[in-house]
Structures are given as C-alpha cells and as structure tokens.
Write a structure and sequence with these properties.
The protein has 24 helices and twelve strands. It has helices at residues 7-14, 29-61, 71-77, 82-97, 109-116, 122-126, 141-174, 192-209, 214-217, 227-250, 279-293, 298-317, 337-356, 365-378, 393-408, 509-525, 573-583, 592-606, 623-652, 657-667, 705-709, 763-779, 816-829, 835-860; strands spanning 258-259, 265-267, 431-432, 452-458, 464-469, 535-537, 570-572, 690-692, 717-721, 737-740, 789-793, 809-813.
C-alpha cells in the first residue's frame, strides 16, 4: 500500500510566522504584518492545493477516483472544497491585516490566491493529460508506485522550498529589507532542512522507480532513462513551481530557469508568454514604465530613451548586411538570426536600463529593477551572465550596452552626478506658492525664471520661509552630445530662435506682446469649468490643419482615408480645456512628453490594418525591424529636442506664467493711467475677466464682495480663474471664480504647480513637433491611420486634479501635427506656458525632427560615415 500523503507535515514545513518589528527605513510594522500574514495565507493555500493534487494522483493510480472521474477532472474539482476554504481564509486575513498596503511584496488576497493555488507542476512531470499517462496498481503496480512517489517527491520539495522562502523573508524583513530586490536571494535558498527533504524525496523516488520504464512513467519534461536524471528534473520542477508562485505573489522578479554558460535558458520554467509584440517593443514598454516611476525629468528621460534605442538598434544592425550600427562597429553572423537578435537586443536593453534606473539615478529603482528582471526572465535569459567576450548574442548585447553606458559618462549630462549642474544660479529668489501673494523683493528681473517653493516653513519671527525649492532640471543640457544637431561654435545654441517677448513697461511691441500673452493665459484659466455651457466642436472638422507655428487652422473638409466629412464632436469648452491640460500634462507618474510620443508611435503600429511600410513604400517590415528603426529615429529626435530646447531655457531663462500673473497683478493695471492702481508693468484690464476691485464691485452681493470679505483691498486686481483644487478631487470640481491675481495658480497639482525649469521655449511643443515630423516621414503620411487618431474618455473617468470631465469626450486628431499642436496648446490651458513658448517650440521642433530622420536614414541604408 502506498504511504498516505503527510498533510500535517506539509503545513509544518510551510511555517506560519510572527510579525517582526518594523524597520525605521523600511515598511511599517503594519505593512510587515500584512506581508507576512499574506505569505502565511498563501503558503496555506499552496499546502492545501498540493495535498489535494497529490491525492488525485494517488487515487488515480490506486483506482479510487469517483466513478468515471479522471485525474485531470479531479485536479480541477477541489473535492471537499479545501482549496476554496483556504482562499477565503486569505481574503479574511487581508481584511484584518492589510489596511495599510505594503510598499512591496503581496498586494492583495486575489493575487496571492492566484499565485499559490497551483504550484505543483504535475503536468510538467507527467505530460499535458494525466489520464493518458497514470497507471493503476491493477495494470502496472510498479509504474503506479513510481508515479505516486514522483508526485509525493515533487510535493515535498515544492513546499519545503516555499517554507524556506518564507523563513528567509521573515529574517530579511527583520533586518532592513526595503524592496522586493532584497528578497530575490530567498528564492531557492539552500538550507539543511531543504537538503534533508530533497534527500528523503530522492530516496523515495529511487526506491519506488527502480526498474520502471521512466520515459513511459513520466513522459513530460522529465522523460528520462536514468533515475538521477528523473529526480534532477523533478527537483527542477519543484523549484520552478515555487519560484513562479513567489514571483506571482511577492513580485521578486527572480529568474526561475536553468541556464547554460552563455546566458540562455536550457530548461525553461513555466509557459513562455505569448505576445505579438517585438522584443524591442517589450523593452520600450519597460522603459516607459520606469519613467513613470521616476521623477519627471524630460531631458533625462529623452536621453535614456535615445540611448536604449541605440543599444537595441545596434544589436539589430549587427546582424544586418546593409544597416550600419550607430555607436558600435559590431558585426555578427548567426544560423538563427531572429533568435540571436532577440537575445542581443534584450541583453543590451536590460543592461542600459538597469544602469540608468539604478538607485543612484532614479526613484523607485527597486521596483524598476524587479520589472526588468522579470522581463529578462520571461524571455529565458540569465541576468547574471555579464560576459562581454565571444561571439554569442548575449555577450554581444553586453558589449553594446557597455559601449552605450561608457559614452553616456562623457556626453555632458553629468550622469555620475545625477545630472546636477552646480553652475546655474537663479537671479530670482523662490516664490512660495502656498502664500497667495508675491514678494517684489524676490523678483530681481520679472522676465527671468523664478524657482518655486512648493512648501513653506514658519521662522521664529513668524515670517514664512520657503521649503521644497525647485532646482533647474537639466540646466547644462544644451551641451549634451546630440544625434543630428550641429553648430559652428561650441558656445552657440544649436538652434537659436532669439529672445522671448519682454515685460518692459514701455508700451513697446515686446511689452504689448508679453501682456497680451499673459492676458490670454488668464482668459483660458477663466474657462476651466464645466459649469460654463459653451459647447465647441473639437473634431478635425473644426480643429487642426494649422500652418507651422500658429493656431490659424480651421480643420479639414474631409477625411482623406474615407473621403467623408469628419463627424463633429461637440463638448463643453471647460471639459475640453481641462482634459487636454491633463492628458498632455505628462508630469509626475507619467512617461513625460518624450515617452508620450513613444506611446503614440506604439499605438499607431498597433492600429488594425496598419502596414509597416518604411516611409509608406516598399515591402512590409517585420515588427522588430519597424520598431528598432522607429525608436532610433523618434528618440533621437526627442533627445535633440531636449538639447536644443534646454539650451535656450538656460540662455534666455524665461519666466513662467505663475510669476508673470502674480507679479503684474500685484503691480496693478496697465490699461488706463487715469484709473486707480495704474502701473506700466501691471495687467491689462478686461471686463468680466481682469478687473480692479472697486467700492461698487465689492458691495454686498456684487462680484468682488467675497474677496474683500476675505481681506482684499480696493484697488487690488481680481481675475476670473480656476482657484486651485477642490477638497475632494474625486467627486468635486472647483469651477472658476474671482480670485486675486497676486495669488493665481495654474491648473496643476498643488504638489507640482509648474515644472522645475524656465519657460522659454516649451519642451512639450519641441518634443511633440519633432516626434510628429518623424512619424510623418517614417510612415509616409501626415495622417494617423484611417485619417483619425483618438483618445476616448468617459464621464468622470480621467481627470486627476478634480472630478471630470462632466460628459464623455473623445480627443481627435487628423494629423500627427494636430496632436503635436494640441500638446503645445494644452500648456496654455494648464497655465504652464505663454504662446511665444509654444509657437517657438513648434518651429524649432520641426527642424529637429526632419534632421533626425534624415540622419537615421543614413544608418538604415548603410551610407553613414564611419
């Protein structure tokens, strides 16, 4: 008779642990309690599941299954409901212990149950259909006994490894583990307990399987002729099941495969993921996810996008007879080019990403590294293979990555100093945003950038002091090594558009332009409310088709792809303004403007019916070739856009609207020297939008009465504007109302307010136009596939700064240029830029995109100079 499965021993092997004390620099005590409670619950689910699965094998082999039931049906049936009860217990544990979500590790009862519900890899050992393989004691007693022993051995080692992981995790959490990376070494950790369990399991299998035809008894991945080979495979499948469960439940990103000595899996753990995405696309998505976790530093991320694209392109080009690599001179031969290209690209991208989003250079680096590890693991590649010698594809990828990383150390970005630039010093002192005023003493020059203090402290004398002061992100970026930009003199800007309009107070052309553009931003701010019933058509029938550097277009008569007129899309003006301000904001937790255009490029390639014909002609390219070429050209363009734009930001140091409006509003009004509060540097008056507070306007029930009641004075300048975020942004919107100009805030998060660099000229506009040029040229059409690009938003389903939109809205663009123009326009709605910033960025970006694509072509066709 076969031995009964030792279910109580399984529970003991898994272990249930006490809550450790919280670490000062790690998760809180409650978060630790949640993680360990969920791990214990997951271990219980695994133990119950493994016991049930092993009983199914035993009962099938001893002829004790219910009438007509197969082993596979038994596995799916959860006889007695033990697994279901264990899973409900996990849910209950999460409800009691996990009021405070942990920063890493298991995040919910559902993912724990999913991860640990089936860790026993019976099908890997016995094949896809157990019923066709399992013998019975009545027909082949020896084979049936061997199969029961193999299942028991698999179960014992699986649960022993899970138990050791949990013990190790408890120890790590007690000793300062602050990310999932610290737990990777707990997967497969070797201990005396585990060794004894393996020895016992091996002895059981050896005793029961002696003399059995092993290839027939275990014909799955463990098909073997010799007992040592069988148990080696059973042991691997046990480790694989545990590793996959822990990756699913704890997100540790541990590789679960067995690798050869050149970094490639010889025994793959689990099912290979099925995807239609090229390997380059997969790594681009990893890059975008890492950007979203990091600080919003557009020039840094544009550079990283470009350098990862270079790494992937050079790895691809090494196997192409025509294309010339950009940075390296690698050439490779292969009997399986598709396979080896994917390997080389993956190692190259992985190494560069791991360097650029490491703890010294990025926020949330641990989470990003786990994600990179998980991706490489899913591709069956070994992250520990770091060799750069030899002709293998992994070594090739490592060499290319090393070259890219080395070039970045001397490209002028100061990567080793985390991109800091101690040479820049703002001429203006910080503006404390939370104080609804501006101190003229902080503004040495109203045309120059003023850093923001996003918090305030109160000094001993009661005076507010600035806190969380912005520093100019990327002030040295004008001297970073570009892709296609050239200049005659190293001290020149690559593309110098000349200075922005200036506030002079002289009433000259530059002064009047400056004031008109500030007035325009206030007008847009006054419209940021869904309470305004004004409806506008935002379809390509009315919007888009602008001449370069203007908003003078009036849409398109027909869709060129269908020959039919575009359908009008009527929405509230306030919803449109708020939506584009947030959709294109690309601030914290976003992929930033350069990454946004990668998202759009990917969506174009994903469009049903889109043909990947380079420049719209010739043969259809395979997805990998299309992606590596698109990413190189596109990200070269946004990289050059950052260099050209940030060089001008450093040189011209342009003021942002928050300083403009507060400064001018406190100065007074500049429209009428015969009225009160006249100052030549004040705001121009506009009835119903920009007004002086008077005795009449502040009388009881009048439009400015509330301002005076709150402390405003007669003669102060009031404007209609968005007043800041509501108390509950999920359910409320602020609308617009009269506020003091000297306390104005843009339509942004209170923790962000305005980017940490000067305004002139707009990075959004430059990035977007340069990217739109590349997409236009590389696809061979100015138009989105089908003549229409869309982004659909449901009522109250998108806005973050406040509730909204108040109805469904679909953003639409006919051409890539229309999307780029809207990105620039959005910055005025959001109160981040004025029109000169936007239009200048569009014109400069146009030149950059064309130059980048033209230079990329020389690498694609092999004509680039060595």
């Amino acid at each position: 008779m076969p031995r009964r499965f030792p279910y109580p021993a399984i529970l003991a092997a898994v272990g249930v642990f006490l809550v450790p004390a919280a670490q000062a620099d790690g998760p809180t005590r409650k978060q630790v309690a949640c993680m360990l409670a969920l791990n214990a619950a997951g271990a219980h689910v695994a133990a119950v599941s493994v016991a049930a699965a092993t009983r199914c094998v035993r009962d099938a082999c001893t002829g004790k299954l219910a009438g007509g039931e197969t082993a596979d049906q038994c596995l799916a049936a959860d006889r007695g409901g033990a697994v279901g009860r264990a899973e409900r217990r996990t849910v209950a544990v999460a409800g009691r212990k996990c009021r405070e979500a942990p920063p890493f590790g298991p995040q919910s009862a559902q993912e724990v149950n999913d991860a640990f519900a089936a860790p026993l890899r019976l099908h890997a050992v016995f094949g896809p259909e157990l019923a066709a393989v399992l013998k019975t004691t009545a027909t082949d007693r020896a084979a049936a006994g061997c199969q029961i022993a193999a299942a028991k051995g698999l179960a014992l080692v699986t649960l022993a490894e899970l138990g050791e992981f949990n013990r190790c995790k408890r120890f790590k959490l007690r000793h300062g583990a602050t990310s999932a990376l610290a737990l990777q070494t707990c997967v497969g950790v070797e201990t005396g307990r585990l060794a004894r369990t393996r020895n016992a399991a091996q002895a059981l299998v050896s005793r029961k399987c002696e003399g059995v035809a092993l290839a027939a008894a275990a014909p799955g991945e463990c098909a073997a002729d010799a007992l040592p080979d069988l148990f080696a495979c059973v042991g691997f499948q046990a480790s694989c099941g545990t590793c996959n469960a822990v990756n699913g439940g704890d997100h540790v990103g541990r590789a679960c495969h067995q690798f050869n000595d050149v970094g490639i899996a010889t025994r793959y753990c689990g099912e290979r993921p099925v995807t239609t995405q090229s390997v380059a696309r997969q790594w681009d998505e990893e890059m975008l996810a890492a950007i979203r976790r990091d600080n919003p530093r557009p020039p840094v991320h544009a550079r990283n996008l470009f350098h990862v694209s270079v790494a992937m392109y050079d790895a691809w080009a090494a196997y192409d007879a025509t294309a010339r690599p950009y940075l390296t001179h690698e050439r490779a031969t292969s009997t399986d080019v598709e396979r080896d290209r994917a390997i080389a690209i993956s190692f190259a991208a992985y190494r560069v990403l791991s360097e650029r989003y490491s703890p010294d250079l990025a926020l949330n680096a641990g989470a990003s590294q786990v994600s990179f590890d998980t991706r490489l693991n899913a591709l069956g590649l070994d992250k520990t293979f770091t060799d750069t010698t030899g002709s293998g594809p992994a070594a090739l990828g490592n060499r290319i990555a090393a070259a890219v990383i080395a070039s970045g150390k001397t490209d002028g970005s100061n990567e080793d100093g985390n991109y800091a630039d101690p040479s820049y010093h703002p001429v203006n002192q910080p503006l404390i945003v939370k104080v609804p005023d501006i101190d003229f003493a902080t503004v040495a020059d109203p045309n120059r950038w003023q850093p923001l203090a996003l918090d305030k402290m109160i000094g001993q004398n009661g005076v507010p002091l600035p806190g969380k002061i912005q520093t100019f992100v990327g002030s040295q970026w004008g001297d970073v090594t570009p892709f296609a930009l050239t200049r005659a003199n190293p001290t020149d800007l690559y593309l110098d558009p000349g200075p922005q309009p200036q506030l002079t107070g002289l009433g000259d052309a530059t002064d009047l332009t400056f004031k008109a553009q500030v007035q325009q931003v206030i007008e847009l701010s006054s419209r940021l409310t869904p309470d305004d019933p004004t409806m506008i058509d935002i379809s390509p029938a009315s919007l888009g088709n602008n001449p370069l550097g203007t908003n003078d277009g009036h849409g398109y008569p027909v869709n060129p792809a269908t020959g039919q007129p575009y359908t009008p899309e009527l929405v509230k003006r306030g919803d449109f303004g708020r939506l584009i301000a947030e959709y294109w904001a690309d601030g914290p937790t976003s992929e930033t403007p350069p990454g946004h255009w990668n998202v759009l490029a990917n969506s174009v390639a994903d469009t049903a019916g889109f043909e990947r014909r380079f420049r719209g002609a010739g043969p259809v390219l395979d997805p990998l070739e299309w992606d590596v070429k698109t990413y190189l050209a596109l990200n070269a363009a946004v990289h050059d856009a950052a260099i050209a734009c940030w060089g001008a930001k450093r040189k011209y140091d342009g003021v942002r609207p928050i300083t403009m409006i507060r400064y001018m509003g406190k100065k007074g009004q500049s429209s009428d020297s015969g009225q009160a509060s006249f100052h030549p540097m004040g705001l121009p008056l506009e009835p119903g939008v920009i007004e002086l507070i008077t005795a009449e306007s502040s009388a009881a029930g009048e439009r400015h009465a509330d301002l005076v009641a709150a402390g405003a004075q007669l003669g102060d300048v009031a404007i209609v504007a968005w007043p800041g975020g509501p108390a509950d942004p999920k359910t409320q919107h602020s609308g617009t109302r009269w506020v003091l100009a000297k306390g104005w805030v843009p339509y942004q998060r209170a923790t962000f307010v305005t980017p940490a660099f000067p305004g002139y000229f707009s990075g959004h506009s430059t990035f977007s136009r340069s990217a739109a040029e590349v997409l236009t040229l590389i696809t061979g059409s100015e138009f989105f596939p089908g003549g229409l690009g869309e982004f659909v938003v449901r009522q109250n389903g998108f806005l973050q700064f406040e509730a909204g939109p108040s109805g469904d809205v679909t953003l639409q663009w006919a051409r890539y240029f229309d999307a780029a123009d809207q990105a620039g326009q959005s910055r005025l709605w959001g109160g981040i830029h004025v029109e000169a910033d936007d239009f200048t960025g569009r014109r400069v970006g146009d030149q950059i995109g064309i130059a980048a694509l033209n230079k990329a072509l020389t690498y694609f066709d092999g004509t680039a100079a060595p």
